[in-house]
Amino acid sequence: MNRYKIACLFLAFSLLAALVWLVVLTNSKTEVTNNEQAVIENILSRKSVRKYTDQKVPREKLDTLVRLGMSAPTGMDVRPWQFLIADSDEALQKLATAMPRAKQFETCKAAIVVMGDTAVLDRRGNPSTNWPFDCSAATENILLGAEAMGLGACWVAVYPYEDRLPFVKEQLGLPANVIPLCVVTIGYPDGENQPKDKYNPDIIHYNGW
Ligand SMILES: Cc1cc2nc3c(=O)[nH]c(=O)nc-3n(C[C@H](O)[C@H](O)[C@H](O)COP(=O)(O)O)c2cc1C
């Protein structure tokens, strides 16, 4: 092989390597953009769904939703939460009995009870006062996860309502230190459910009131 052929081969190889590098770079940039768009769409399309089909929700999806809940931000990283997955007829019936006015329990196929644990102490040895906020953040993660999975979900408040709280605690046999913030009812959506557009530029303040 003469020098000219070697130079041509080298040039061709370099061009090919540059092309591969360019394709990889372009793809990774697209991935980041797609990921950002996917997260934005997930949040904007979340909505409360209160009526569900007969389709069961796989246990592994519920476990993933609880995992998402536990990845929420939590004051001083105290994590003062507990989660109860209800996917048996018996457990769901107990929740329905505790909250007879919540129509979601007529059709939901599963529920996750998000609970604060007041026995969990912070770094200074005090019971967490942040548990309602931490559990709320966990609940939102669960709702967004459900949306991403094609599930319908709804936040059903328990705390601080006296017509719900003691009944949910009693039905589920919760210890005194465990306070249910809410029940997220879950199932595959029955019918059309549209997200509400709540965007209001009038309530945004830049750099001061
Ligand atoms: C703190 C809190 C308590 C809620 N409690 C209930 C409830 O008890 N029952 C219910 O059907 N929906 C409940 N929701 C859902 C709201 O009604 C719903 O988020 C609101 O109407 C806005 O609709 P969207 O979720 O579709 O955007 C609750 C939501 C939050 C954040």
Folded structure, characterized:
With 209 residues, this protein is α+β, with helices and mostly antiparallel strands. The protein has 2 domains: 1-45; 59-187, NADH Oxidase (3-Layer(aba) Sandwich), CATH 3.40.109.10. It is 44% helix and 14% strand. It has 5 helices and 4 strands; from the N terminus they run H-H-E-H-E-H-E-H-E. The chain has helices spanning 3-45, 59-70, 89-98, 131-148, 165-172; strands spanning 81-86, 110-117, 152-157, 178-187. Strands 1-2-4-3 form a 4-stranded antiparallel beta sheet, with helices on both faces. The protein is elongated, with a radius of gyration of 25 Å. Bound molecules: flavin mononucleotide. Residues 47-48, 50, 154-157, 196 line the site of flavin mononucleotide.
Features of this protein?
single chain, 209 residues, alpha+beta, NADH Oxidase, 2 domains, four-stranded antiparallel beta sheet, 5 helices, elongated, binds flavin mononucleotide
Q: SSE layout and pairings?
A:
Blueprint: H1 3-45, H2 59-70, E1 81-86, H3 89-98, E2 110-117, H4 131-148, E3 152-157, H5 165-172, E4 178-187
Antiparallel strand pairs: 1-2, 2-4, 3-4
Helix pairs in contact: 2-4, 3-5
Architecture of the largest domain in CATH?
A: 3-Layer(aba) Sandwich
Count of spatially separate domains: 2
Report the sheet with the most strands, covering strand number, pairing sense and barrel closure.
Answer: 4 strands, antiparallel
Strand content: 5-15%
Rounded Rg: 25 Å
Q: Class of the largest domain in CATH?
A: Alpha Beta
Mean pLDDT: 92
- Write the CATH homologous superfamily of the largest domain: NADH Oxidase
User: Span from first to last CA?
Assistant: 76 Å
- Report the count of strand segments: 4
